[in-house]
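Narrative of activities, Objective 1.

The group set out to show that a structural description can be obtained from nothing but a protein's sequence at a throughput compatible with the screening campaign. Below is one input-output pair from the validation batch, recorded exactly as produced.
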Amino acid sequence: GCSGSHLAAMAFAFDLEKARRDAQYIYDVSNTPLTGEWRVLSDDPKNCVVYRREMHDDVGIPEFCGVGLFSGVTPWEMNLILRDYDFRRRCEASLLQMGCIAHPETDFWALYNRSAAVLGGMVSSRDFLDFSCARCDPDGGYTHGGSSIEMPSVPPVTGCIRGRNYTCGTRVQPGDAPNTVKVTYIIRSDLKGSMPQWVVNKAMVGVVSGFFAQLRKNLPSLDKSRYPAKPDQPGLATPPGWVIPPLNGTPGVLPN
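Output recorded for this entry:
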């Protein structure tokens, strides 16, 4: 049965409309040329390009964007792979925990993740709790977008700093050749704590480039036949009945 904390997560009033707006933002940014205010921080033709731009709003936290191309995978498969949190956790060495803790409606889910300290401990362990939406796009691709939420049933883990993600997510677009995709990864995080901007830049470049590098390294060995086929029903980014991998070792007061 469900613990009281799991039931609290299920009963939480998730803001589906905010998640839809987040996904639309990711779609719009990925459709805009990454020029002008965007500055290239890292350019690896074999992996990805990482960009950064200042955000002139009350938050004042910069936004980072990575773009990379992948072959041997369809947009539908990549749409599911990016939400296969068991696979993602095995790929990304810095991830200590990652998984779905609530799935209130098709194409909506709450995600918890906890990362290890990086840069020799200059950036200590962080955890994040986001609520996201997946959607189908007119070009045959998929967009995932979300942002941080606060749930009393999922407090920060002891020894972790709870970070905040402003609108972040991924866009999967069909490539020019069959079985190729373009992935855009957008992230804007308040890591909390006191760190100079150069440390934040270095940490975020590592997060973005590492996301692409580990995905690229592990994709060839992934058995994609375990993913459901694309449903006949149009407009669904999540196949009916598919279980987004849950958290392995749930945070806070939830049972480990």
